[in-house]
Each structure stands twice: as C-alpha cells, then as structure tokens.
Specification:
The protein is an alpha/beta fold. It contains 16 helices and ten strands. Strand 1 and strand 2 form a beta hairpin.
Amino acid sequence: MFNNLALMKNTLLTLLLVASLASCHDKKHEDLVGQMINIGRKESIDSKILGETRPYWIYVPPSASTPGVKLPVVYLLDGDAHFHSVSGMIQILGTGVNGTHVIPDMIVVAIPNIDRTKDLTPSHSEVIDGHKEDFLKSSGGNSNFLKFIKDELIPHIDSKYPTSAYRMLIGHSFGGIATINALYEIPEAFDSYIVIDPSFWWDDRLLVREGDSLFKTKDYSNKSLFIGQANTLDPGETTNEHFAAIKQYVELLEKNKQTGLRWSYEYYPNDSHGSVPFITEYYGLRFIFEDFDPAFDKVGSDPDALKKIYDRYHMSPPQEVLERFGRMAMATGNKELAMRYLQMNIDEYPNSSSHEAMGDFLLSKGDSTKATEEFMKALQLGPDNKALKEKISKLKH
C-alpha cells in the first residue's frame, strides 16, 4: 500500500490557495464584466464562543418573500469555495425553474474559513505520513466550532430569515470529517448530511474508531447521510490511506444497520479530490430528497398526500405549487379538487396573492360577486398589481 497523505496535503493546500485567490475582490475583473449580478449577501456574526467575528454568505430564494413561508436551511462548510455551486443547484432544482421541484426550495448559509485547520479538525494532531507539519499546530478546534454553529449561528439565522426546523450540513475533505463529527456530537442540530471525499485518515482514523463505538448504541433514525468519494489513486495504486479510510467507514455503515441511519455512498472514478464536490452535492441532494416529488400526475389527486411530502421538511407546500395544482385541476374540469388546492393556498398564505387565484376560480364558476371579493383582498395586499385592477374594473362594469 502506498501512503498518499503527503500528496493529499499538498492538494488540500493548493485548493485552499485557489479558493482564497478566487474570493478576492478584483477591480479589473469587475470593470470587465460591468454591473454585477448578485446571488447572495455577505453578513457576519460576533461569536462569543469563538471570540471573533465570523463572516457568512447567504442565499435566500425568491419564495422567502412570500408572507408565511418557512424554508429549510443548508449550512455549507468551506462556504466560499462551494457557495455558487450549491446555491445554483437549489435555484434550478427547488425554486421551480421550468416547473422543477425535485428538492425543497432552501436557504443556503455558507461559512467561509478563517483558520480551516482549527475549525474543521476534531482532534489535535500535527503529524501526516509520519512527519510533523507546522500548518497543523492549531488543529483540534472542531467541537468548539460546532458549538458556535449550534448555539450562535443557527439561532441567529432563525431570527433573521424565514426558516423551517429542517437543516442540512455539507462538508468537503476536512469539512467532511467536521460534518461527520457533527453527526456524532450535535445530532439534534441537523437532519441530513452530505460528506464529500472526507479525510477519514485524520489522527489514525479517529472518526472511524469513534463510529465503531457510537453506532452500537446511537439511534440515528430520521437522519440521512450521503458520502461521495473521489478517485485519489495514483497510477498503479490500488489503495492509499485516504482512499482506504473512506472505504473502511462505508464498511462500518454497512455492518451497523441497526442505527436507523438512512445512507448512501457513491464512488466517482472520473473525479479528483478537487472536482468531486459538484457531482457529490448534486447526487447527495437527489438522494436525500429522493421521495420529494410533488408532481401533479403523481399526487395531484390527493392534497393531503402533497402536504405530507412537505411536512417531512417542516414546511408548507409552496404557494406556487398550490396555485399551479389548483389551476391544473381546473383545467381537467375537477372543480372540487381545484377548490381544495386554492383554499389550502389561502389557508397557508392568507396574506399573499393566493386570493387572486381563488378569484379566477370563482369567476370560472360564474360567481362574479365572490370573485370580486377575492380580487379586492388580493389588491389590498398588492396595490400595484395593474392587471388585477383591470380585472376588477371589467367586473364592475
């Protein structure tokens, strides 16, 4: 067996340098691209636990502006490196682009690094491949970092944004072992985990050894875990320490099915340690939400079944979905079903444009009086709606 940890260390350092350079504000680049398109905001929180001001980047989808909406939250380690990919996937898969709702619409909270080694490693260790490394001197602060996330950052986000109680944690490499350590130390904080080519070799496979003990007694029912592994083998190698430690962890999961943990693992032979995050994030989201499929042809005949899909994630069916299902039921001539969806829309989002959809439905039934009442309610909530004003005007004349 070849020991590949020195190469892994160099790869990790290179990735950190690239991420750091990419996150710098480049005035010349801004001049070239002109007016910037914003996909999120940079915020910060003063942490008493860590004794420092911690930045975070946040993506809030358009649906968050709907009065009464509650959205799950993804917490993303190495946040500056993965913010664009994860927020972009959620925008495509969950926001409803082209009618796609294969995952919930979610808020993304990305946590950039200050001292990556300190925050993401679960124990103090200064040795890689038998050699003492200076960059590991600050290692071992992950427990404190997780306490910051659970006791300070999560309450802070919940106080500022329309969050549901469902949370996911995503981490790559050192972030991967920090994510597994969160499953061990603060399982109450997160419902699901995506772990990307994790550094399970850390400290003589510490987390593998701890897992062997924990899994015999812990109940991880209602938790979901996805692990993606890169091809980190050199030509001619069949294994190395990084590669073998991940395989050992998967074997550990396979022999401890009594934990109740719902998990899946994929190996990506055509992806390196640096390229594997994107594909793992995608398939991790699809696995975790594989039963999330609010398609009209599958659940449209049963509003209660639709509600149960979203109940798993502590959220209500989105206004856009309820309205679309109501209009589709109208198009099929099932007015009773349309009424149920449109009334559910009003019940869930009484202070939104849900009244306009109900007005359209009532108008289709020939009840112009009640339709006008619903349109007027909608206009009070959205007084700048010119099309709605014209609709009301035509009904009054």
